[in-house]
Amino acid sequence: MDISKVNALSYEDFVDIFGNVVEKCPIIAAAVWSRRPFVSLSALETAFSEFVDALPESGKEGILRCHPDLAGRDLQRGTLTRESLEEQAGAGLDALESAEASCMAQLNKEYKERFRFPFVICARMNDKTNILRQLSERCQNECTVERAHSIEEVKKICHLRLQDLVCHDAPNKL
Ligand code: 2AL
Asked: Which domains are assigned to the chain?
């Protein structure tokens, strides 16, 4: 879809289409709709980022808590969103060796005990080895540093999901 088509969407259709560009946070799409018209895909992405950045820290943590664990319960139960399943499978997280799976489960648990939100990383920009390494390293971070880092990962996920939905065009003249 091109940006002029995005700008013509009703809020119902906009939320249906963009409601999961930030995982399980359709309220963000519902708010971003008010910012249309968007001059380009990049302007649309900026509107999502600015909404997230303007949230208080508790709101940012709320967004992180809407993310499923990597290789976690939702993957095992088949209850991931379509986007998350594709991203996790693309990074090889649906086919971990048993040692990798137990390492991931243990580190996810330690991470959540420390930060009280799940480890979030853009799976499409990493493979399983890199994800495990970063999970282990980021467990050592200070909480505010880690929260900020995690929100940047949410934005990377959002960037790629938006690219899947909207084609790059020359900016529209409004
Ligand atoms: C995810 C997810 O569902 N997709 C992705 O790229 N990262 N989850 C997570 N906890 O990092």
From this structure: 69-149 (1.10.3330.10)
